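Hello Y.,

Per our agreement to keep a running log of every chain we model this quarter, I'm adding this entry. I've kept the format consistent with earlier entries: sequence first, then predicted structure.
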Amino acid sequence: MSELRYDPIKHRWAIIAPERKMRPDELLVPQPEAPPPADADGCPFEYGQEHRTAPEILVIPRAQPAGSGPNWQVRVVPNRFPVLRVEGEVAREGLGFYDRVSGVGAHEVIVESPDHDRDTAALSQDEVVSVLVACRSRLQDLRRDPRLRYTLLFKNRGREAGATYSHPHWQLISTPIIPSVVVQELKVAREHYGRKERCIFCDLIRLELRLGVRVALETDRFIAISPFASAFPFETWILPRTHCHDLAVASDDDLTGLALILGDLLRRLRALLSDPPYNLVLHTAPSPHPRPGQPEYWSTIEHDFHWHLELVPRITRFAGFEWGSGYTINPTPPEEAARFLHDADPEQDAAAG
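Predicted structure for the entry above:
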């Protein structure tokens, strides 16, 4: 029988509909052609095309002898078509009961590899670590700008997930306001801590480890779970098992552990769902800069928030009911999604699966 489940962190409802329950190979997985480059001359992220991007913000060199191919492993460059621009001052004004803030911010691309056809699932653990090191470095650097209050790191994989280029890459967008989805999580975490003096995410981890039914993967440092009120089939969260509020302060060992479980999870999804399109988003702490007139601004965040990655394969569609109600319909109960992921063979060839 179907049931409605409530997510106390997201403050959202999801309908878990087992009557529509399907095995992974029965799910409607879009298989569009790889998105063409948005430039007639080819992909600007290709090795040898470095001159076609803006000057690099950060480069992580490739660990190899000189003269044997690409000399970089990860490049961070400004987005050619930024949604926000770094120049200017932040102006805030009211227009009646509307609000307007000038479009100051940053929009960058993190090119994961010089290899065009090797997505994160195909990278080695050390290569994924290099990507995560670049992400941490950019978070740390952008925090120095008092105009910017939040940096959202995300990856769109495949046309259905919004990718324009097929070359594997992440993006980041820094904004002068904190996104409302993140504010919701921050408020819930602070209120929970104020009542119980415990992190709500740590409580979630303890509960899920005790129950076991929604734990897809676990290592000594991280856990991957299918959330109780998963909005989408095979939605998965990766959380550090030890409390940490901010990826920007994660240790090198933490990033090594994150690379291990992230690569494993993506390979299992690739095998189960025939290399699906997906979105991967980091939720971490906002900029620590104080706000004038608000001395309590996220003052307990080191204790109450817990950074995490949220992964959503794009294998179902958002239609009229979802848009009108705010509910989602998930045909794959999270308990079964976790079991499928746990039992999947991460080394299985996606084409053979």
